[in-house]
Amino acid sequence: MKTIKLTFLLCLVSFISFAGISPKEKEALIALYNSTKGSTWTNTWNLDLSETQWYGVVIADDKVVELNLAFNNLIGTLPAELGNLTNLKKLDLFRNQISGTIPSSLGNLKQLRSMNLAFNALEGRIPDEITELTSLRTLQLFMNKLEGEIPANIGNMVNLRTLELYNNQLTGELPASLTDLKNLQKLLVSSNELKGKLPISISNFKKLEVLSAFDNNLFGTLPSSIGELTNLKELIIGNNAFYGDLPNELANLTNLKTLMISENNFKGELADLQKKLPNLKNFDYISSGESAIATLDDED
User: Fold this and answer.
1) Domain count, the chain
2) 207 phi-psi bin (left φ>0, alpha ψ -120 to 50, beta other)
3) Which pick of 27, 39, 138, 246 has the fewest CB atoms within 10 Å?
4) 46 falls within a domain
């Protein structure tokens, strides 16, 4: 009986020692390796070794929970098999040479909290399936070649804190559902081809600290509801086609540190902007046209 128990214990220990990630997860990692010239990565993988020793792969309870391959010379496209890493919480492929489109299969990564595909050469549309990632807190897709409209259902991503889509070729208007992201703290959509107005419902962004939308084709007057964004520290909307008087409610933005509104068509004399924003310490007025840039020194 003792021999049987000892044999069983040894088998159990052996199973635990050699247990690894699921075949699907391993296939997904190898698919990424093959599709992005893994042999030429800055930090490559030895596929003969356990995946626990592969650079940038974080495993917990025999599940791949993080994939950190930023600055690693990935050259090629993202395989659909990445969608099989269903336990992934962090995906960081920042600053590589990844081209092609974003696979719609990434919508399967329901536990994902952070996705950074920025500073690559991705093109095509942002897949609608991305909006199914309701656990996502950070989405960074800036400095790519993405085009088309921002997905209409982006408001489904209710836990999103940071949305960075700047320096792409995105078109269309800001989706109506965008202001459903009530936990959003950073919204950066600058240097695209976006058009339309800032919605009155922008007041939903109670936690917003940074709003950067310069270098687009946005137009219209600034809604007075922008004065309800009392946590706002940066408002950067230069180089658009906004017009009209600046709302007096801007004076409510007592945490504002940076205001950039140049290259618009705000009418009237802007010299009283300092009165509307009494916390401004440095005010630089650009007399060309009717534009201005005002900056509040950071006292930190």
Assistant:
1) 1
2) alpha
3) 39
4) no
Residue 266 belongs to what H/E stretch?
strand 265-266
Mean pLDDT, range 85-114, rounded to an integer? 98
Predicted model pTM = 0.88
In this structure, are residues 198 and 232 in contact, taking their beta carbons and an 8 Å threshold? no
Q: Of 158, 210, 172, which Cα lies nearest the Cα of 188?
A: 210
> Mean pLDDT, to the nearest integer, of 181-208?
97
Note down the domain range covering 149.
60-74+86-295
pLDDT(271) > 70: no
Q: What is the pLDDT of residues 126-147, one digit of tens each?
A: 999 999 999 999 999 999 999 9
- As given in the structure block, the two tokens for residue 194 are 């976006």
Sequence-distant (≥ 6) Cβ neighbours of residue 58 within 8 angstroms: 64, 65, 66, 67, 68, 90
CATH number, domain at 266?
Answer: 3.80.10.10
139: β partners:
115, 163
- Residue 10 in any domain: the answer is no
pLDDT tens-digit profile of 68-79? Answer: 999 999 999 999
30 within domain boundaries? no
- CB 184 within 8 Å of CB 159: no
Residues 6 or more apart whose CB falls under 8 angstroms from that of 258 comprise: 233, 234, 235, 236, 295, 296
**Is 177 among the domain residues?**
yes
The proportion of the chain whose per-residue pLDDT surpasses 70, expressed as a percent, equals 83
Rounded to an integer, what distance in angstroms lies between the CA atom of residue 251 and that of residue 286? 20
Asked whether residue 255 carries a pLDDT value surpassing 90, the answer given is no
d(CA 148, CA 235): 25
